[in-house]
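Pilot study result, target chain (118 residues):
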Amino acid sequence: MGEPRRTEELIVITKAYDLILWSCHHTGKFPRNHRFVLGERIERNLYDLLEILIRAKYTRQRQELLEQANLVLEILRFQIRLAKDLQCLKVESYGFAALSIDEIGKLVGGWLRSVGKP
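Predicted structure:
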């Protein structure tokens, strides 16, 4: 039973890493008036998310960290949507990011349930 969970932990960390790579190729192309606030906040939140997930992997007190990850994901959902609405992101790029965030969210939710949160 321990092995599949370990694989899922690695998958969620890899997906967060991949989303950071994706964002680095997109936020730098935001219009100047949005790049330094919205673009940087999106990137910072993605870096925070990755760090939180890695911390959760290496501690026994995971619940609080995973709840924190869920909060960061919710903030990212709104920031990505705002980037689309401000036309910083094309609709297809927004779709990719939104799907990735949802996928990561489902994995974090499953991880949270496995540590005892209903």
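One observation from the pilot: The two ends are 19 Å apart (CA to CA). A full batch analysis is planned for the follow-on phase.
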